[in-house]
Amino acid sequence: MTTITVNGRVSTVDVPPATPLLYVLRNDLRLDGPRLGCGLGQCGACTVHLDGEAVRSCLLPVGALAGRTITTLEGLGTAESPHPVAAAFVAEQAAQCGYCLSGWIMTTAALVAREPGAPDAALRRGLAGLKCRCGTHLAFLRAARRAADQAVVTAPLPS
Amino acid sequence: MSAPAGLTRRGFLARGGVLVAAALLPRLPPGLDAAPVDPPARWPELVPPEALASWIAIEEDGTVTAAVGKIEAGMGISTAFAQIVADELDAPFAAVSIRMGDTARTVDQRGTGSSNGIVQGGAALRRAAAQARQALLALAAEHLATPVEELTVADGVVQVVADPARTVAYGTLVAGRALSAVVDPAVPVKSPLEYRLVGHAVPRTDLPPKAAGTYEFLVNLRLPGMLHGAVIRPPAAGCRLIGVDSFDAMPGLVRVVTRGDFVGVVCEREEQARDVARGLGVRWTEPEARFPADADALYRHLREAPVVADDTAESVGEVGSALAQAARSLEAVYEYPFQSHACMGPACGVADVRTDAVTVWMGGQKPYPLRSAVAEMLNRPLETVRVIWLPGPGSYGMNDADDAAMDAVVLSATVGRPVRVQHQRADATAWDPKGPPASIRVAGGLDADGRITVFDWESRAFSARIRNPSTSRAGDSLAGELIGGFPGGGAPRFTHSQETYIFPHKRRHARLIDWGCSRTTGLRTSHLRDPVGPAACFASESFIDELAAAAGRDPVALRLEYLADARDRAVVAAAAERAGWQARPSPQPRPPDANHVCGRGIAYAPRNGATVAMVAEVEVELATGRYRVTRFVVAHDCGFVVNPLNLRGTIEANVIQAMSRALHEEVRFDATHVRSVDWLSYPILDITEVPDAIDIVVLNNTPTAPPRGAGEPATRPVAAAIANALFDATGVRLRRVPLRPADLLAGLNA
Q: Quick one: pLDDT at residue B242?
């Protein structure tokens, strides 16, 4: 039995500890944001936040995550009330099929939270390794640019 | 409450109104999680295309459901469909939902492919919406006791022009009934001058839910009592199943299924199915050496193997003697590899095989043919089978989606419960049908004045349709092939060039080499985005460039000299102009002591009535051969554009994906195995490699220009444009895709 907090809700799941987090999120907790792209940690479609950091849930055994905080795409916002990063992606029409989209939004959200206003080169490096088979990359860069600029506006002021 | 256009829960359900008379179709319970509790013993063999109610339904609350026999493959066509319907019907855009690809509830338009969604699906929806508007106005005239000519409609509300306070809403007029008119193929439709939404930049309706994790992908489907399946494919070419080793109890294992060479497992949980499939001891016969040993051997084979079929697309003059008489002649051979769909998500298929009815949920492009294959696999009457499309990952032709659906059918039929099959990465990358390789020889000649007198283009390739690009027979699927005893389709498809240059002597000829040995392997071929197009264009546009260099001519000017079609000329000129093309021959003179050099190249390609030209700009590091494509300029003529905002995304996606195919993609193999199994062994373009910009010029976007489809045309010239740019930068001509830095370096050092 493992207790994790996902999108603000505490859940206890009764699965073998080696079960990858991705399957727990999708099948036990009925969350559809993170998806199976490869199961090998190569593509990023399964990306979630673990204590705020972007990680690949297909490689994380749930038994190692007791007491940790996990956020999926659903935890960022809704279609009617989107997270600013998700809104940036929609504003830039940054999706084709959208199957990979959760991974890109989650990675971008962590990236711009860490480095508001990051320059384009840093955005490219920060998104390196994520796969998009449809070829939406230019729109992703525009979305990340918008999200990074927004993050400057909304970043907490230094005290 | 408005229903967003695109896919919503409501898009899947029949609500208060039904699409055709209640006697024909079942009312479904709400909720995507639930399968039909009591499916009917029969679904209609056809959803009648002549019945207006097959296309449009209006509910009492004014929501409009339009049904079409196409699917959303990720390019945003569902938004375009909603624009068309809302415009023609004068209903609010937000009130329109599009139902797609359900064999029990949408007209058979075969599904999606050939960039024909707007042309076929859009046109049918426009006529149906126009017909519905007529029918509703007639009802309104009666309701308001006012002649139709004195009425106007806006946002789904009919109004008396002379007395605007007198109105009636569409929903009130319909009052829960179906529209009973017959579709008139000649129904007058609006003039483009009346369009409010079509032709305008309407944001895609599927993006907000996709960005929030609420879009109903097929992989989200969960049915009561559903089990999870995985497949175990033969480990190498020609391997036949000997048997499954005895095994201790494995967690969650419900059944191991073997039929012929088909092996699948069914478990309680998804990851259990994956683990069992990995860990199960399965014994196979020894592999057969069915493939060439490597890429070099493959291309040699294509050039030396017996030809089984020939086809001439064009023959003008006498190329043989013209070549012999040319003042200067050139010849080159171009090579293009196997390529994979490698879809973002390995395919998912769900099947619920009951004693008297079968429901299959699939993510592929062609739900209608699949219905026949399922019926054949199970030996059931067609009308007991229903295939429902749900969104999969982006689809680019015949990938592994139908195979996953048929795998699920086999497993569900065996265990008697709904089964969800989830393919793993290798089931997709290694096992999906591939785009075929080609070796293409082009010869040309110049006269003493440097004019091109002869152009002789000949391909040697495997058929692009070893595997049927629709799954209409059980034997078209991998499950059917592995089980055995099911004949499949498949047909000769030649690698032809479509360019329209006019030369005094010209031949475009294609030859096929047998590739039947690829059946039941990952190297069987089928349609991959712009089938055979990138290979053919790589050869023709590279060679035109080689002729230009030989003649000392500017590549743009030379093309314009030999192109007669006005639209082809227009895209070439427009791409060059937007790119700031400086007229001069290639290659660029090499600056002394340069570490990096830049270059530009152009390529053009017509495709089934659309036409595209693009300029690629590159920067090359001379010491390593590494290069960056820094910019594309694309001139794109696909006729009238329903959604210009969406067109940009479609063109960019075509170009980036095609750039990936040009720079990186080739399926690796040896004599017995497909070795491309994941993203490491089949790399695709990374975000650090994409150009800084793709500048787009759209031509011929006028309401009178027929729409030609934008799903594929911009893919075609990308490899050639890049190769031509690399030549311009370095003087090195790469004639094999992928365009490798190592080969560029070898050329620089030669």
A: 98
Report chain B residues whose CB lies below 8 A from the CB of A124. 687-688
d(CA B670, CA B298) in angstroms, rounded, equals: 10
* pLDDT (0 to 100) of residue B111: 83
Please state, in angstroms and rounded to a whole number, the distance separating the CA atoms of residues B398 and B364. 8
Contact A135 B685 (CB under 8 A): yes
The half-sphere exposure of B569 on its side-chain side, counting CA atoms within 13 A, is 10
pLDDT tier at B12, thresholds 50, 70, 90: very low
Residue B586: partners with Cβ closer than 8 Å, 6 or more residues away: B545, B548, B549, B555, B599, B601, B724, B727, B728
Nearest C-alpha of chain B: how many angstroms from A103? 10
* pTM score, whole prediction: 0.94
Distance, CA of B606 to CA of B568 (rounded, Å): 7
Give me the pLDDT at residue B519, please. Answer: 96
- C-beta atoms of A93 and B646 within 8 A: yes
**Torsion over CA of B119, B121, B124 and B130, rounded to 10 degrees?**
-100
Rounded to a whole number of angstroms, the distance from the CA of B205 to the nearest CA of chain A is 10
Residues B338-347, mean pLDDT to the nearest whole number = 98
User: What is the helix (H) or strand (E) element at residue B569, kind and residue range?
Assistant: helix B566-579
Instruction: Output the pLDDT for position B120.
Output: 82
Q: Could A131 and B391 be called an inter-chain contact, meaning their C-beta atoms sit closer than 8 Å? A: no
Strand partners, B310: B511
How many CA atoms, within 13 angstroms, populate the side-chain half-sphere of residue B230? Answer: 22
From the list A16, A93, A99, which residue is nearest B649 (CB)?
Answer: A93
pLDDT given for residue A116 in this prediction: 96
Using CB atoms, pick whichever of B212, B217, B653 lies closest to residue A77: B212
| Contact call for residues B257 and B384 (beta carbons, < 8 A) | no
- Detail the DSSP E strand segments found in B627-692: 627-637
What pLDDT does B30 receive? 31
Q: Which of A134, A136, A146 to mutate to test the interface with B (most CBs of B within 10 A)?
A: A134
Q: Which of B217, B392, B693 sits opposite A32 (nearest CB)?
A: B217
- Which of A42, A105, A136 has its CB closest to that of B679? A42
Answer yes or no: is pLDDT of B17 > 50: no
Provide the b/e sequence for B188-227 (b: ≥16 CB within 10 Å): ebbeeeebebbbeebebbbbbbbbbbbbbbbbbbbbeebb
ipTM over 0.90: yes
Does an H or E element contain B71, and which? none
CA-CA-CA-CA torsion for B533, B536, B542, B544, nearest 10 degrees? -110
Q: Determine the residue of chain B that is closest to A37 in CA distance.
A: B345
Residue from the list B210, B425, B649 with its beta carbon closest to the beta carbon of A139: B649
**Chain-centroid distance, C-alpha A99:** 13
Sign (positive/negative) of CA torsion B711, B713, B716, B720? Answer: negative
**Interface touch A79/B214, C-beta < 8 Å:** yes
Residue B516: both structure tokens together = 């039947």
Which residues from chain A sit within 8 angstroms of residue B659, using beta carbons? 135
DSSP B305: S
Whole-Å CA distances, B364 to B79, B180, B434, B533: 19, 32, 15, 22
| Record: contact B204-A96, CB cut-off 8 A | no
Residue B656 Cα, gap to closest chain A Cα (Å)? 5
Q: What are phi and psi of B277, to 5 degrees?
A: -60, -35
Give the contacts of B83 (CB within 8 A, at least 6 positions apart). Answer: B93, B197, B198, B200, B202, B642, B643
Nearest CA in chain A to B228: A27
Is residue B673 a contact partner of residue B237, using CB atoms and an 8 Å limit? yes
User: Which whole number is the average pLDDT over B695-719?
Assistant: 95
Helix residue spans in B34-161 (DSSP H): 77-89, 123-144
Question: Looking at CA atoms only, how far is residue B84 from chain A in angstroms?
Answer: 20
How confident is residue B169, by pLDDT bands cut at 50, 70 and 90? Answer: very high
